[in-house]
Amino acid sequence: MLSYSLPSLICTVLAFVPALVLHEAAHGFAAWKLGDPTAKRQGRLSLNPARHIDPFGTVILPLCLFAMNMPVFGYAKPVSYNPAYFENPRKGEMVVGLAGPASNLLQAVVGAAVAAALWFALPMMQLAIDNVVVRYAYFVFLPTYVLTNLYLLFFNILPIPPLDGSSVLAYLLPKKHLRTYYKVQRYALPILLVALILLPYVLRINPVGWYLDVTAGNLYGLLYAWMV
Predict the structure, then answer these.
(1) Cα gap 185→175, rounded to integer Å
(2) CA angle at residue 145 from 99 to 118, to 5 degrees?
(3) d(C-alpha 205, C-alpha 196), whole Å
(4) I need a labelling partner for 57 at 20 to 30 A (CA). Which of 35, 44, 118, 226 fits?
């Protein structure tokens, strides 16, 4: 039997969608600021979720992870960009790649700041009144929103293609190895999905879950330390 309630599932979806949409829009915005109009022309600077949703990465994968009581993360449709527009293509690709995780860090900090401001500005009895929507918004949605953004941040900065952290790896690699790197990159996603889903579910080995607990979990504890 699955150990989640409908309200917690709704809060998870409501937290995950804006976290992912702003992540993708940040990629496009960074490319646009560096001189590439591709993402803007394709409407990827929009905050409309429909422009960013990938059926598997945005819906099916997160729901599967949620059902298995694993950290919820996923991906949206990749934002297209053309490095030829960048003054320094390799550096530009790294900036575009890191813009998404940076947006998740910002969202997590803002979410925790809003929670802290409400905590100290209002007596807790006012937050815990009979209004069930207020209770779920404060005690379920906001923590879920912060933690989801932290999961997306630390998951995406892994230096594994096609994750955003691979843009840093590509920047650091000598040019002579780039052709081989880009060939390997095309096959990396299926291998990553196997590591994310099959290893924890079948073999009970979950290195990514341990990594997220150490990174996202500990930073979440720091951001919510005022509540202890």
Answers:
(1) 15
(2) 115
(3) 10
(4) 35
pLDDT, one tens digit per residue, over 190-211 is 777 676 667 766 777 778 888 9
Q: Where are the alpha helices (DSSP H) in the chain?
A: 6-33, 38-41, 61-67, 89-121, 124-127, 132-136, 142-156, 166-172, 178-185, 188-193, 207-212, 218-223
* pLDDT value of position 4: 57
Residues 83 and 51: beta-carbon distance below 8 Å: no
Distance CA 122, CA 82 (A): 49
Residue 158 above 90 pLDDT?
no
Is 228 buried (19+), middle (13-18) or exposed (0-12) by CB count in 10 A? exposed
Residue that the structure tokens 């579910």 belong to = 201
> Tell me, what's the pLDDT at 1?
36
Other C-beta atoms lying within 10 Å of the C-beta of residue 210: 12
Sequence-distant (6+) residues with CB within 8 A of 197 are: 61, 64, 65
pLDDT at 42 over 70: yes
Task: Give exposure, 13-45, as e/b (b: 16+ Cβ within 10 Å).
Answer: ebbbbebbbbbbbbbbbbbbebebeebeeeebb
In the three-class reduction of DSSP (H, G, I as helix; E, B as strand; rest coil), residue 170 is classed as helix
Locus of tokens 């949605």? 141
